[in-house]
Specification:
The chain is an all-alpha fold. Helices cover 69% and strands 0% of the residues. It has helices spanning 4-23, 32-60, 69-82, 89-107, 112-120, 124-133, 146-158. Helix 1 runs antiparallel to helix 5 (112-120) and helix 2 runs antiparallel to helix 6. The chain starts with a helix and ends in an 8-residue tail after the last helix. Bound molecules: fe (ii) ion (FE2) (2 copies).
């Protein structure tokens, strides 16, 4: 089933994929404008899922979290951490690898979006409005300090992923 929630969030994945492709098309020369748009869009997308979708699923299941919620949240933590350092080849390759698996978990048959859509039932349109009402995330400048990159690497590993080579 692909209802309004599925379509809205999957289209946002496509939009972000396109920005990411544009940002990283020349790996030695990141398109900083496209990357800034990707970064703010990704953080906003994660906020929609964390503040509207997952809480709604929890409520609609009578307080029981989705089986996949923890996996999804760990990926969000890793992706958020990856948005802090400036994008080098290693950050780019790691973001690409995590997003590929993560977005599939959400979009696939029986994945998070379909489960949420089914749980929402007649509430789907109202949930969609709530998703659309989520404000943008205020952005901080990238932090180039080595200890930040190290903290990012730990967040990536905590989520069960590995930092890719550049
Ligand atoms: Fe997500
Ligand atoms: Fe998503």
């Amino acid at each position: 089933m692909q209802g309004p929630i599925y379509r809205y969030l999957a289209e946002d994945h496509d939009r972000l994929d396109e920005l990411f492709r544009k940002a990283a098309a020349d790996r030695n020369n990141i398109d900083t404008i496209a990357y800034a748009q990707f970064r703010s869009g990704l953080l906003h997308h994660i906020r929609m899922e964390e503040t509207v979708l997952l809480p709604a699923a929890l409520r609609l299941q009578g307080g029981r979290p989705l089986a996949i919620a923890e996996r999804i949240r760990m990926d969000h933590g890793a992706l958020t951490a990856l948005m802090v350092p400036p994008p080098d080849g290693s950050v780019i390759n790691t973001v690409r690898a995590i997003l590929q698996v993560h977005n599939a978990l959400e979009e696939q048959e029986g994945g998070m979006y379909q489960v949420c859509e089914q749980l929402a039932g007649e509430e789907a349109e109202s949930l969609l409005r709530q998703l659309k009402d989520v404000p943008e995330v205020p952005l901080h400048p990238h932090n180039p300090k080595p200890e930040i990159l190290e903290a990012t690497r730990r967040a990536v590993e905590r989520a069960g992923h590995t930092m890719k080579a550049g």
